Amino acid sequence: MDLSLSGLASGFDWKSVVDQLVEIERAPQRRARREQFDVSRRNQLLGNIKDDLSSVESKAKTLKDEKLYQSRTTSVSDETVGTAKVESGAALGSYKFEFFQRATTAEQKGGADAGRQVDWLTANGAAVDGATSLTVDTLTTSLSNGDVVVFKNGAKFTLDADAAVGASSLSGTLSGGISDDENGSTYIASNGFGVKATTGTFTINDSIITVETTDSLAS
Fold first, then answer.
1. What is the pTM of this model?
2. Is 105 part of a structural domain of the chain?
3. Which of 56, 138, 190, 195 lies 20 to 30 Å from 37, alpha-carbon distance?
4. Residue 118 located in a structural domain
């Protein structure tokens, strides 16, 4: 219960007058708060409009791009078999592929690879580019005329004569200089595969053609 003694003796209710005056004094404050709320609300709405306009502008640029109307997408019924990619402007359609056998990893069957085993050589003494002989440590494998010795520094020595097991001097031509004890070299056969050319056959339009090692193509 609100008990007030204002105006009890004089008969004048001064408290209500004070309350009204206080309300009048607070009117500008309440008006400022309402205006602040209105401004904040307008700023929020303007921000939303700005975001919407930016989105419209981005979509308009996308619509102006001619590639949009040439874009293509792909789908594959079984992605475990393969995938598909498509470029802009590709012809529309569906394509069906029939696979009778899936590719598998190649495996070697039989003995060692064709060609002789790679061996290591060590130069016994330096040699300059163009040298016609080369001194090496004792050979553990024979070399043949036409074999190429490839050193670690990239220099190559092409033999013009056979070299037997135990030989320490090679005859041929050196391309690039080497230093003493240049090691890690290997040799390969002159045809690049370590396998000599032999007689063979090939087929053209069901006709079998035999080729001899002495055959050549006419100019």
1. 0.36
2. no
3. 56
4. no
Which of 46, 76, 106 is where one domain is finished?
76
The pair of three-digit structure tokens given for residue 62, joined into one six-digit string? 């996308």
8 Å CB contact between 149 and 185: yes
Which domain range does residue 150 map to?
133-188
Beta carbons within 8 Å of 183's beta carbon, 6+ residues apart: 120, 121, 122, 123, 152
- Helix (H, G, I), strand (E, B), or coil: what is residue 25? helix
Q: Is residue 66 part of a domain?
A: yes
CA–CA distance, 85 with 153 (Å, rounded to integer) = 45
Sign of the torsion angle spanned by Cα atoms 158, 162, 165, 171 = negative
C-alpha 185/C-alpha 29 separation (Å) is: 96
Reported for 195-199, long-range contacts at CB under 8 A and 24+ positions apart, including other chains, are 195/114, 195/115
Asked if the structure places residue 7 within a domain, the reply is no
Count: domains in the chain = 2
pLDDT string in tens for the chain (219-residue length): 454 555 555 666 677 877 888 888 888 888 888 888 888 899 999 999 999 999 988 888 888 877 777 878 888 888 877 788 888 778 888 888 777 776 666 665 555 444 444 467 788 888 999 999 989 888 888 888 888 888 888 888 888 999 888 888 999 999 988 888 886 555 555 444 444 445 566 666 667 777 665 565 554
